[in-house]
Amino acid sequence: MQNYVITLGLLVALCSSASGQVKPWLPWFGSDSCENGVCSSIFPVFNEDDDSPTFDNCEEDDEDGTCLSPVTATPPADDSTNEEDAVSKIKDFEKEAVEKAVGVLKALGFNPDEEYNPGQQRGGRLFAGGMLMQAAIDQALAVLRIFGYNTGAQINTIPQPEPAVFQVQQSALLVNTQPAVIISPTAARDTNLPNYEPCRGGEGLCTSAKECKNIGGVAGKSIGKCGNCVGCSVCCQFVTGCQGITDKMITYFQSPGYPRTDRSNEACSLTLNVRDEVCQVRLDFIDFEMAAPQAGSCSGVDNFEIINTAQPGGVFGPGQSKLCGLNKGQHVYMPVKPGNILIMRATTSGVRNIPLARLDGTNRGLSGDTAFRWNARVTQIPCEAPGARGGRSLPDEKSARRIPSHYRKLLAPDGCRQYFQESRGRLQSFNYDGKSEVLLNQNYAICVKRPARSCGMTLKALGFSLPASAGCLPGNVPAETVDGVCSLCCTSSEGDSPGVNYLGVSGYSDGASVMTPIGQNYAVNQDRYFFCGAKLGVTNLMVTRTKGPLLLRVRTAGNYWEQVSCPDGGCLGFLINYDVDTGTC
């Protein structure tokens, strides 16, 4: 704003001097100021009978003669060259004054086609600078009126000045123009980056409107405003279809025509190039409807396969990287390394029924009888700031401040395939729907965030059925005796056993209470770790007590079990409500 004040001062100075003296090369210009009792006017008045000018501001009873004659400069000699020089200077003065006035108006966003009332403060974006900006506009318009530019149409005819003079000056004032900024390497390291900052709770990335368009096969959709990074203006969802390739921090992988369902026979994939600073990838299934597994396997039906070069042995267990059935609301964590490639590939045919779909064609809120669809959000989680060097360990305090908080909160403990951060929620096996069988070859951990001053958690099974040997099938016993040999339930693969199948959790009590010297407390009557069969323990209620990590281990056999090893209704997996217990143990 200081530059504009100086510019306006120059404009006023070009029109008149502070002392009231007239520029020597403007013989017919005066001043509207008074000094030492001598007053003069900008515009002289000529008498019709006399060639000498007089002024219209002298009193009629002037007795001292001070206003008998104007204060004028000595006219130049009657020389044609001097006259031409004077005319040239006058034109140069007019051109310079008009161009600078127009430049001020343009810089302040003034629209000559709109009605403007001088002296009345106006609101709105163009007048966000307040009274000082309004005064600058009034002064610039006053300068233009001196030279006969009184209307917007006349102002629009003025040739535009060269922008170089005002381009730098206006950057500090314009509200909607990005100024040119030079950022030092240190400042750039700490600056929020476009296409990196999450927005709307991780639903999209903060970026520019231009970047949000379809670039490189990744279509962008604006879902709101965002301005917390350099050059950003929108919160964008980047969506890929079949055979897409991306390295975006947050990307959506959708089935063809989503949210409509599909029955086509095709292979659809997304290839994710893992960034150097990323150590985990989280996959959220916002929608997932495919055919149910057959004999505990997804290989013979429509399936969604995850190929992670950091987990060559399988994502969910030995040789197990495929999902099918219903998995809406499920999520998966995967460890990755710099330069890794993560491939998500859906193989579909649309010929087998979707679980819970009515065979008569009536839609029960799902996609239909054989149609499939999916919508997966892929989030790269950094363990260090962008461009940082070093190992994959957790960032130090200074580096962590440069990682957006959303990513820091998502980061799961090592070894967790699922990570729940709420103190209360629901856990369920993959493709659990109450009718479809649990998958083979699973071996993964479910982790629950442990808040301060917690002492374990309470689990309530809404549905539970895992393969078990005959003696363990009821689920309420920790061990069985076969031919005089005692063995733990859920852990044997000998004889007629269906193999190792269990939900592992450090049990403590089934919820029964006893009176102790310090009051009522849980009875220690369910001290076991392996659970299988038709129940989660004796009553489908489990109380755990631990000061360590809160986690559950899921394990299923590699070979398909016979139905005789399953509870009534089949081996369907589990659906469990959990509640973290706070306090001291």
Largest sheet: 8 strands, mixed
Which regions are unreliable across 5 or more consecutive residues at pLDDT < 50?
1-6, 14-73, 121-128, 163-181, 361-365, 389-400
Helical amount: 10-25%
Beta content: 25-35%
Q: Write down the Rg.
A: 40 Å
Distance between the termini: 65 Å
* Structural class computed from helices and strand pairing: alpha+beta
Task: Please characterize this protein's 3D structure.
With 585 residues, this protein is an alpha+beta fold. The chain contains eight helices and 30 strands. It has helices at residues 2-15, 80-107, 131-146, 152-156, 164-169, 185-189, 397-400, 405-410, and strands spanning 34-35, 38-39, 45-46, 53-54, 198-199, 204-207, 219-225, 234-240, 244-246, 250-254, 266-273, 278-289, 303-308, 322-323, 331-335, 341-348, 373-382, 416-420, 424-428, 443-448, 454-465, 479-482, 485-488, 502-504, 513-516, 519-522, 530-531, 541-543, 550-555, 573-582. The strands form eight sheets. Strands 5, 6, 7, 8, 10, 12, 15 and 17 form an eight-stranded mixed β-sheet that branches. Helix 1 packs parallel to helix 3 (131-146). The radius of gyration is 40 Å and the shape is elongated. The model is unreliable at 1-6, 14-73, 121-128, 163-181, 361-365 and 389-400 (pLDDT under 50).
In terms of topology, how is this protein built?
Layout: H1 2-15, E1 34-35, E2 38-39, E3 45-46, E4 53-54, H2 80-107, H3 131-146, H4 152-156, H5 164-169, H6 185-189, E5 198-199, E6 204-207, E7 219-225, E8 234-240, E9 244-246, E10 250-254, E11 266-273, E12 278-289, E13 303-308, E14 322-323, E15 331-335, E16 341-348, E17 373-382, H7 397-400, H8 405-410, E18 416-420, E19 424-428, E20 443-448, E21 454-465, E22 479-482, E23 485-488, E24 502-504, E25 513-516, E26 519-522, E27 530-531, E28 541-543, E29 550-555, E30 573-582
Parallel strand pairs: 8-10, 9-11, 18-20
Antiparallel strand pairs: 1-2, 3-4, 5-6, 6-8, 7-8, 10-17, 11-16, 12-15, 12-17, 13-14, 13-16, 19-30, 20-29, 21-28, 21-30, 22-23, 24-27, 24-29, 25-26
